[in-house]
Amino acid sequence: MVSLVETVEWMGANSDVLVRQSIQHLSIALTALVIGIVLWVPTGVLVRNNERVSQVLLGASGIVLTIPSLALLPLLIPFFGIGEAPAIVALVLYSALPIMRNTVVGIAETDGAMKEAGRGLGLTDRQLLVRVQLPMAYPVIMAGIRQATVLLIAITTVAAYFGAGGLGRSIFAGIRLANADQIIGATIVLSALAIVLDYGLATTVRLLPNSEVIDT
Amino acid sequence: MSHDTATETASNSIAFENVTKVYDDGTEAVTDVSFSVSSGETATLVGPSGCGKTTTMKMVNALVEPTTGTVSVDETPVSEYDPIELRRKVGYVIQDIGLFKHMTIEENVGIVPDIVGWSDDRIENRVTELLELVRLDDDVRTKYPQELSGGQQQRVGVARALAAEPEVMLMDEPFGALDPITREQLQNEFLDIQAGLDVTIVFVTHDIDEALKMGDKVAVLQDGELIQYDPPAELLRNPNNAFVESFLGEDRQLAQLQTVAVREVMGPANEAPTNDGGTPLSPDDTLRLAVQNWLRSETDVVPVVEDGTVVGSLSEVHIRSIFDGRSRAIEENHV
To answer: What region holds the ABC transmembrane type-1 domain (chain A) (predicted)?
Structure first.
């Protein structure tokens, strides 16, 4: 029988494991997220004016997202070995669609009058991008990053199956041992991580003047 | 960047020579247009939608490149300027205003001075000066555009365009999106503001009354061609063809009264009635106001008074004198 009391008791008894696995989990997911941001935001910026290239890139990253992580991770093992490396590579690939798409769309949707006025006042393309388009696109780009964060936290769980650490270990162990408390306990911690991160990132948007948080 | 002011005042600030613009899709937006705007003057470009007025204006700051012909600013062809440098010294105001929503009013107004590298102090002083000029309270400087009314936003738009002390201003239907009362208020204030500036203005509008009111000269465009380019009074007196005549509207004579000052048509002072002949007129009043006073007056002749002295008189004959020649010109054109 599953009871919340027993689950909480299990969590209390194994808190050291949960904390250690949470740190591992965050370290994998956030490393991938940072690489993803560094890689995909500039890519989105670079392809913003080239519709063909951006369509191809967004299409490809959409296809990547449809590959189940259980299939993609073993495919990467021959190239990156076992453990955190293939997990991070897979996660970076998964983050491409939400981050790049929102960057491209956010910049493209900058108010036409602002672009027209900016150009007419003598802003260079670069100044227009940095001073007007990126600040205006920031909430949209952040929405993509938040989406990617939640996605990566979830997928990191699967990576535990292929030798990376994280809360996935407790969940897979719980499945093997048919221990529902272990599965649910680890899942609660996992959800809490995702919610806290999502909320924290949304707050960075709220702090900016005149930026609205876009719900994902 | 310094110019010889002596030559500048006498020069054509903006000149179009046989300018044609054909867009990539084959649309001929502007056909063989030639005209010039003297330094410090305002030219209004007016015509129905799709007549090429905005395209014409955008060739001045290189947002649109002419297919053939030459557009010059300060006697130098636009093609010889760096487009970015040119745009920074040409103010730009558009109907949709286009204030940057994530920047305060201060940052909006100061953006061009900022990118051309003015010091913070100088920008701050310039913003203070400009907000005063466009009659906005200084406390709007820390607000965001959305916190202002449409009329206030366009005041900021005008201030932003004037920030880097441009010699040329382009205004694309700047008051078109405002309600009629605000529009008229801004028109009047802008005429005031402009009188104190040495800036050459190209002002695009589809509203003929606005064109006549704001322009030292009015360019009427139709299907990409410049039909007539004349001062408002001349345009009203001698419309070039039936299109201009119909575009000027049914109340052309009333509009014409608006363009003439009493001083230009009044009779000698000794014809003024010695008894109280109704409300006296000032020589700077428009003829439109004069007609209204004249209709209210009990006498046929109204005195014109300046600084307490009678300097002239106005009667029906004087008012009618502005229409002389008009009917003749129209007849000639229609034959």
So the answer is: 22-201
Rounded to 5°, the CA angle B44-B46-B49 comes to 145
Interface contact flag, A117 B98, Cβ < 8 Å: yes
Domain A4-206 carries which CATH code?
1.10.3720.10
Q: Residue B138 has which token pair?
A: 């200084």
Q: Is the pTM of this model over 0.80?
A: no
Q: Are A109 and A137 in contact (CB under 8 A)?
A: yes
B176 in the same domain as B40: yes
**Domain stops at, among B218, B249, B280:** B249
Closest residue on chain A to B146 (Cα): A210
* CA nearest neighbour of B234 among B254, B214, B250, B216: B216
B230 and B316, same domain (yes or no): no
Separation CA A212–CA A199 (nearest Å): 14
Residues 263-302 of B with CB under 8 A from A: none
Q: Is residue B329 part of a domain?
A: no
The answer on B228 and B119 residing in a single domain is yes
Read off the DSSP letter of residue B1. Answer: -
Number of domains in chain B: 2
Same domain, B88 and B208: yes
Q: How close is the nearest chain B Cα to the Cα of A133, in Å?
A: 10
B158 shares contact with chain A (CB less than 8 Å) = no
Distance from CA of B250 to the nearest CA of A (A): 35
Q: Are residues B244 and B288 in the same domain?
A: no
E strand map for B28-175? 28-38, 42-46, 68-73, 76-77, 90-94, 168-172
CATH number at residue B47: 3.40.50.300
| Least Cα separation, residue A211 to chain B (angstroms) | 8
What ipTM, to 2 d.p.? 0.77
Q: What is the 3-state secondary structure (H, E, C) of B285-314?
A: CEHHHHHHHHHHCCCCCEEEEECCEEEEEE
Range of the domain at B137: 12-249
Does residue B182 share a domain with residue B111? yes
Residue B5: inside a domain, yes or no? no
Please tell me if residue B147 touches chain A, with a CB cutoff of 8 Å: no
Q: Over its length of 335 residues, how does chain B's per-residue pLDDT go in tens digits?
A: 344 444 444 467 999 999 999 999 989 999 999 999 999 999 999 999 889 999 999 999 999 999 999 999 999 999 999 999 999 999 999 999 999 999 999 999 999 999 999 999 999 999 999 999 999 999 999 999 999 999 999 999 999 999 989 999 999 999 988 898 888 889 999 998 888 888 999 999 999 989 999 999 999 999 999 999 999 988 988 888 888 988 888 778 887 888 788 888 888 888 877 766 567 888 888 888 888 888 887 788 888 888 888 888 888 888 888 776 544 444 444 43
